[in-house]
# Entry
Amino acid sequence: MIGARVPCLLALLMFFFARPATGGAGESSFKYQQVARQLLAAGMKDGESFSLLRELTSTVGSRLSGSPGAAKAVELVRRMLMKRGFDNVHLEPVMVPHWVRGPVESAVALPSRKGKPISLAICALGGSIATPNAGITAEVVEVKSFDDLHRMGERARGKIVFFNRPMDPTKLNTFEAYSGAVDQRSAGAVEAALAGGVAALVRSMTLALDNVPHTGVMGYRDSVARVPAAAVSTMGAETLARLLREDRHLKVHITLSCRTLPDVQSANVMGEIRGSASPEEIIVVGGHLDSWDKGVGAHDDGSGCVQAIEVLNLIRKLNLRPKRTIRAVLFMNEENGNRGGRGYVTAPGRSAEKQYAAIESDRGGFDPRGFSVQADSTVFTRTLAWQDCFDLLEAGKIARGFSGVDIFPTVEKGVPGFGLDVDSQRYFDYHHSNNDTLDKVNPRELEMGAIVEALLCYLISEEGL
Amino acid sequence: MIGARVPCLLALLMFFFARPATGGAGESSFKYQQVARQLLAAGMKDGESFSLLRELTSTVGSRLSGSPGAAKAVELVRRMLMKRGFDNVHLEPVMVPHWVRGPVESAVALPSRKGKPISLAICALGGSIATPNAGITAEVVEVKSFDDLHRMGERARGKIVFFNRPMDPTKLNTFEAYSGAVDQRSAGAVEAALAGGVAALVRSMTLALDNVPHTGVMGYRDSVARVPAAAVSTMGAETLARLLREDRHLKVHITLSCRTLPDVQSANVMGEIRGSASPEEIIVVGGHLDSWDKGVGAHDDGSGCVQAIEVLNLIRKLNLRPKRTIRAVLFMNEENGNRGGRGYVTAPGRSAEKQYAAIESDRGGFDPRGFSVQADSTVFTRTLAWQDCFDLLEAGKIARGFSGVDIFPTVEKGVPGFGLDVDSQRYFDYHHSNNDTLDKVNPRELEMGAIVEALLCYLISEEGL
# Structure
């Protein structure tokens, strides 16, 4: 786009970008529209979201539950909250799983006739057992679904089961595409073992075609044999599928050295702005502090964590003095256990409080579109009345939907849940992989998420649900 | 965000991401909603936008008017359109300016007392004259506005005028922030010369703080002396401002070797799908094929160009057979002259056609939010009736506003204009700089723009305005 060299064009630009006034707003709405504008100005001018995220990702890096990184992160954000003088800053201990990747993970395709071994980019799935030290070498069956596998009968016995159903690119919301494919990752090892397979190799959960494998949690079932499970990059999956079309007896050699160690004590971290009228009523705003061990968890979910802290920053900068308590909670262990989310509900002292609402940001630090509401229709209708305020932030999409994994144990108890809804197109390009780094986060988009969350917290605090 | 390991969570995710049905849609609307869904599926599954953009940016690169790159681009997109068998593929010649950057552009801050020279990252503004070969060395006055400069009186005489007003970060729409700062770039040289200054140094038009200068067009006035003009990176601007606070007699040495050569013949490139009922009624969908010589113009405006081609691809793939002609126009010379936009209106044969509507994408290949309408209220109201279809694409923001520079000469003649509205947060991080490269474009976001434009073209074609 041109620089407005011609003065008339410049004038046109300025004229046309002027925002239309929102009509018919009452007095109370006008007040909150003012707050929306003030939050926008404060956040966009001096917001700290990105500098906090830089600090978290550069001084700590990845933060898998039980890892030294996770322990450092707990201490770092505690200090961030203390330094800013928020109320009631403390840790709430939770025991978390401690899975480690180990030094070796590799896969090589071995043609049955001629041709050189071809390396495939893989990584162990979180929770997987290791292969024997020498690795596993076996033929491969490719399937697109568990039904495919069931129909195969005995043909999968002794083989590596290759789950190669892509995320559906025709879904506009990439979380829908993810939901439609992630069973392969979560339950692939169990299904492979039930079919007599010796390992599961799963196409990475991403819509991008690149050579970066994406990890994520997988599970075993007590009654079913445990077999190792790994993700292969989407380019690796395409390569393997092509090789298999040409060579049905191709083998793959996989080596993984991951293992699960005893549980470790870790913690949820929290701090708050105490309510001025009803301090016992708590509005939780949170994200999860743990990440996978690939990349540095900049989007997943460093973004949600720094946004929760920034909500407190913004509300204090504007001297809003909310009626209810607004509490930032950095949950531990969302990725592979949700011990933090469950631990929050049962922590000592929780029963003396009233959890009034819970908000989570865990869909990446992208430009917000609005929020999902996981509550009854009375609450939903109430939030719809605030749409004009969110429209001012271009985040007026309010729809019923899932709120977040960390707050789900809270929401299950009847507390209204809210999930920050963001532009989803890029998320799975980065998610759970070495691509999830700070440079993928735009500072303004990240800050906008905090601004929208701050407005939602304040509206809930002042107007009630 | 977690993988839905726990089956109940998976079910929840799937349940909650199900889209609510759009209520109350009439029959005709239902038909177009179906088209919207089909366009989405076709584009997201097999869309060509990104591969076309890769081809344009990798085989051609930058495409400044009059450059060999621009000539190659004209030929490449002509072939792209021919190869796909679209109707009436041809070039329409236009004469364009031919400004070249030359081999040298540098700036060094020279402390008046002690200290080493400090290099500043600069680039010539498009249209600037060169400095003398030996460069210009002068003291610097920093201003935030033309008013500042006017108040300075004689103090600017013989100095380099440093325009350092940042884009306003508190504007949510970054184009507003751009409009509020770009006078410094477009008219800074004239204002500097009027104040007796010897050169203009302008803070880059970006909200990012980095060391990459952003070029863009500037102008001279016939009655005013011509002085060289360059952009300095935002980090360079911050450094220079700091140095000036410490050392009022600091000098800067600037060397530029740019110059303007005689005009060159170039062309607009076009191809179309001929209308089945009213072929003489033309719906233009376009972008501009020229770019600045920094980066490869991936967002500005390679995106708009490939989207225009993709609109034709999608409409043909769906075998929609539009009533009116849909014409992709790749305009030449938007950046520094708009000769293509103006030439389109006056080209031979144009008077035999009826230009029915014009659509432009020139705000980067980001996720679409909707579109702006530059037309009378009857047309605007008509397009509002289509909102349910665009809501399905999460691009339902329809607002009156500027459409686009290339189509402005057409719109000025009373033709309804439409501008693809996209998420604006990242655009100026890349705009007119070495940052504007293919890796900054997300394939899905880019394709979504084409899908939204295709739907708009089709609705206009079938329903009329």
In short: The mean pLDDT of chain B is 94. Residues 60 and 72 of chain B are 6 Å apart (CA to CA). Chain B touches chain A through 72 residues (CB under 8 Å). The first strand of chain B starts at residue 87 and ends at 100.
